Amino acid sequence: MLWVGLRPQRRVGGLGYWIVPETRGSGLATAAVRLAVPWALEALDLQRLEAWVEPDNLPSQRVLRSAGFHEEGRLRSFLTVAGRPSDALVFSVIRPRH
Ligand SMILES: CC(C)(COP(=O)(O)OP(=O)(O)OC[C@H]1O[C@@H](n2cnc3c(N)ncnc32)[C@H](O)[C@@H]1OP(=O)(O)O)[C@@H](O)C(=O)NCCC(=O)NCCS
Asked: What region holds the N-acetyltransferase domain (predicted)?
């Protein structure tokens, strides 16, 4: 499953994805995110697509990097995971500025 939500900021989208555990490790997330990025930027007319990832989620970080996302920084206690605060790494792709 892959989804793009709209952030409150104009023309900014947020990407999320989830692969069923039985099929993880076979390149599905990488393929899906690579396909989704150009579609989301164009079809939704985004100037920025971002993703928030837990620091220990290394597979997800590899997915994003291989789809052209850049790591921008760390938001402390930004997420709540299983009821506890968790940091988030921020990744993004942007459209070339004219
Ligand atoms: C993160 C997730 C989407 C990855 O899906 P996937 O289909 O297994 O990913 P891929 O098979 O495309 O592999 C992605 C990369 O992670 C690497 N990887 C897999 N398991 C790993 C592990 N335990 N540690 C480090 N890297 C790992 C793969 O080798 C691959 O890297 P490569 O392209 O350099 O070889 C999947 O694990 C998932 O659904 N997790 C739960 C939900 C989630 O975390 N969503 C993302 C929230 S930001």
From this structure: 1-96
Strand 70-81 versus strand 84-94 pairing type: antiparallel
> pLDDT digit string (tens) for 68-96?
999 999 999 999 999 999 999 999 999 98
From CA 61, how far away is CA 67, in angstroms rounded?
10
Ligand 1: which residue has its CA nearest to atom 48? 53
Can you tell me the mean pLDDT for 55-60?
Answer: 98
DSSP code, position 96: P
53 lines ligand 1 (CB under 6 A): yes
Centroid of ligand 1 to alpha carbon of 98 (angstroms)? 34
User: Which class does domain 2-94 fall in?
Assistant: alpha beta
